Each structure stands twice: as structure tokens, then as C-alpha cells.
């Protein structure tokens, strides 16, 4: 299926290595996931989303973009299409206002459930659904459930509201279509709900069957002697819950980061104050 990458940091940082130059960077992985790519990054709190239907490994725009992006929040996706045509409207990340979303997964027998899921999304959000994928409907379902709890334009959205909205969305979907597969390689037609969502200030990920890993510190930071924000949490587990960076990836990326596997059903999030939550 697809590949995900999410990044949230206390400082603006480049993610060129993760996207392009690491041994198993997203561009390399796109050789097996050739149906398009997308990168969302934030400048002064506003999301910028660039997408293509080409394979990232052969797309000069992807390489150029990855080389210049410097942001506190980045979300990237490499697509291996299971539902929906290969076009820009069906390419992740999806965006609504300040919110961006990328999904690695599938809803089994989606056409049977499309209308039921769509009906759970209120008209003021539903009219912005442009593509034909289950992923975009999942995004708007989660947004709908966040909107039950708070306004979607609030920058410092309570991470607990996001967690509860994700849980409500997954509960509705599993009751409707059945549980998601707990086995990563059960097949492209099975149900999976692994995704990352962010509004630039907060970020949360859900492990819905497809593997997802996270990292909050490195063995050794190359910039430990020059970075003004360097602290012990850059090179060890946090004791206070406050971290300097959080990365999500469909598989551990080569380099100094220490990666931990999320477990099926787990939600991990970070709030606007860089406080890490493991739900």
C-alpha cells in the first residue's frame, strides 16, 4: 500500500534526508509505490500542499521541493492506489483549512459503504469532498467528529479532542464495515485505518493495521553543539512528556533516530506545546 511520513519539531528543520537521501527514504520507497506523492508543510501556520501523480523517485519536483522545505510541521505521502483513479484529487495529503491528512489503508468493499459514511459528514464539510477515495471520506469523518467538540479553526486544538474524534470515527467504521486487519501484509483489499492528521500546531497518528513507527530522540544529534534548542530529550526518552521533535514513518528510516513501533489501535499525538501523548 502507501507510505507515510510525519514530522513535528520545536524549530524549523529540513527533512531532505527522510524524503530523498536516506537509504530507505520516501523517494526510494516510491519505486514500489508509484501512483503519486504529496507533501504538506506549514509556513507561518498556513499549510502549503504540493502533489503529483508521478512516482516520487523519478519526479524532479519532489526532489527540488524536498531540498528546500524547512518547516516545523511536514506531512508526506507516497501513494500505491487501491481505490480511486490516479489523479490529483485522489492524491494525499488532503487539506481542509489548516488541517492536512494522509492515510495508508483501505476500506474493504468500500462501494457498499460509501453512502453510509458520507451521510455521517455534515453538509458544510461534505461539499468540500472532491475525490473518490475512502481516504478522503475518512479525513472528513474525523474532521466532523473534531468539529463536534471544537471549532476547526482553533489553532491550539486540544489533543484530547482529536484523540476522541479519531476513536469515535474508528468505532463507527468498524461497526459498519468490520474491524481493521491487525496484520500489516494481509492484502491490499483488507481494511486498514493507519493515518496521520495535523493542523500545523498539533499532530496525531492512528495505527490501524498498517505498520507505523515513531521517534522522539536520536542516538546523537549532529547539531548538539550548535543548536540553541538542544536538550537531553534530543538524545533520550523524555521524562517530563515534553519533546523537541516527533517523527512518524511507515518504516524506520536510516540515520540516528531511535524508532519505536506503534501497536494496533494506538493513537499518539503531540500538542502545540510539544507535549507527547501516548493513548
Note the total helix count. Answer: 7
Roughly how many Å is the radius of gyration? Answer: 17 Å
Separation, N- and C-terminal Cα atoms: 25 Å
Task: Report helical residue fraction.
Answer: 10-25%
The main sheet comes to: 7 strands, antiparallel
| SSE string | EHHEEHEEEHHHHEEEEEEE
Rough shape? globular
Rounded average pLDDT: 86
Query: Which residue ranges are poorly predicted, with pLDDT under 50 across at least 5 consecutive positions?
Result: none
Main sheet strand line-up = 3-2-4-1-10-9-11
- Structural class by SSE content: alpha+beta
State which percent range the strand residues make up. Answer: 25-35%
Number of strands: 13
List descriptors.
globular; 7 helices; 7-stranded antiparallel β-sheet; alpha+beta; 279 residues; 23% helix; 13 strands
List the SSEs and their pairings:
Elements (H helix, E strand, L loop, with lengths): L2 E12 L1 H6 L4 H4 L7 E7 L2 E7 L7 H9 L1 E9 L15 E3 L2 E8 L3 H9 L4 H4 L7 H14 L11 H19 L14 E7 L4 E4 L6 E3 L29 E5 L10 E2 L5 E4 L5 E3 L1
Amino acid at each position: 500500500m502507501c507510505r507515510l511520513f510525519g514530522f513535528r519539531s520545536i524549530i524549523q528543520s529540513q527533512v531532505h534526508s527522510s524524503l530523498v537521501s536516506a537509504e530507505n527514504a520516501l523517494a526510494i520507497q516510491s519505486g514500489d509505490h508509484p501512483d503519486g506523492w504529496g507533501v504538506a508543510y506549514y509556513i507561518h501556520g498556513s499549510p502549503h500542499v504540493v502533489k503529483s501523480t508521478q512516482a516520487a523517485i523519478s519526479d524532479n519536483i519532489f526532489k527540488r521541493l524536498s531540498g528546500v522545505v524547512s518547516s516545523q510541521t511536514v506531512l508526506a505521502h507516497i501513494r500505491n492506489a487501491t481505490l480511486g483513479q490516479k489523479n490529483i484529487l485522489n492524491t494525499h495529503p488532503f487539506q481542509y483549512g489548516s488541517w492536512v491528512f494522509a492515510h495508508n489503508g483501505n476500506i474493504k468493499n468500500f462501494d457498499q459503504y460509501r453512502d453510509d459514511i458520507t451521510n455521517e459528514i455534515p453538509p458544510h464539510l461534505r461539499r468540500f469532498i472532491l475525490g473518490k477515495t475512502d481516504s478522503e471520506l475518512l479525513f472528513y469523518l474525523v474532521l466532523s467528529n473534531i468539529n463536534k467538540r471544537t471549532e476547526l479553526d482553533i489553532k491550539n486544538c486540544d489533543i484530547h479532542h482529536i484523540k476522541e474524534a479519531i476513536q469515535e470515527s474508528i468505532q463507527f467504521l468498524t461497526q459498519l464495515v468490520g474491524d481493521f486487519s491487525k496484520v500489516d501484509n494481509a492484502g491490499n483489499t483488507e481494511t486498514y485505518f493507519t493515518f496521520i492528521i495535523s493542523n500545523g500546531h498539533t499532530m496525531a497518528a492512528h495505527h490501524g493495521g498498517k505498520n507505523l513507527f515513531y521517534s522522539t530522540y536520536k542516538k546523537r544529534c549532529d547539531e548538539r553543539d550548535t543548536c540553541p534548542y538542544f536538550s537531553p530529550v534530543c538524545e533520550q526518552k523524555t521524562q517530563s512528556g515534553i519533546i523537541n521533535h516527533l517523527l512518524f514513518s511507515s518504516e524506520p528510516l536510516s540515520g540516528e533516530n531511535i524508532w519505536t513501533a506503534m501497536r494496533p489501535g494506538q493513537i499518539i499525538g503531540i500538542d502545540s506545546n510539544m507535549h507527547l501523548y501516548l493513548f
